[in-house]
Structure prediction request, 232 residues.
Amino acid sequence: AQKVTQAQTEISVVEKEDVTLDCVYETRDTTYYLFWYKQPPSGELVFLIRRNSFDEQNEISGRYSWNFQKSTSSFNFTITASQVVDSAVYFCALSEAMIQGGSEKLVFGKGTKLTVNP
Amino acid sequence: NAGVTQTPKFQVLKTGQSMTLQCAQDMNHNSMYWYRQDPGMGLRLIYYSASEGTTDKGEVPNGYNVSRLNKREFSLRLESAAPSQTSVYFCASRFLAGVTDTQYFGPGTRLTVL
Prediction:
């Protein structure tokens, strides 16, 4: 069975600090996808990134970076120089690879609430 | 291009009442999903539809039914609402083909069952 664990329930930082959100996953699939979503206080869910299981390269997008390590089954998310607008709940999710006509279930972690204080 | 739309945005029901949550997407996505979000529980998959004409149970399907009416629409029905179904419901759609993976969530429906 697939499982995603976000051990940090809440994190509070001061603006300009760097912060890392942890995500640990479990799956028996050899091919899978990992995701991060952002849910700001307004409630909508915003897709941030997808990572394939066969691509362990780290990714950077502006102040956001992601560290994928298969050896530790982790897909951690770092925000550099955090800003108040980064305050949100962040979800990590896992999906098995789609087989033709097969399922594409997304399993979510319980989320980490990040508060960035001015 | 409206993305994923959900109706209604808010709903209050009495125990035992029925209702249908509507979801539509105009992006020609293959897969659609219904999730519920409860405090401290994250998002849990209720049902999903990998393609038009197919539906499958997710993690928490009891008390719900779904219909994939066509490629655009995926509705969620509560036949006899219970207080335990008080939650925020999100619909999502996803297009997955090769390296292309795009997905969007609707704005959510906040349901209260008294």
Chain B touches chain A at residues 31, 33, 35, 40-45, 48, 50-51, 56, 58-59, 88, 90, 92, 94, 96, 99, 101-105, 107-108 (CB under 8 Å). The longest strand of chain B covers residues 87-97. The two ends of chain B are 36 Å apart (CA to CA). Residues 54 and 68 of chain B are 7 Å apart (CA to CA).
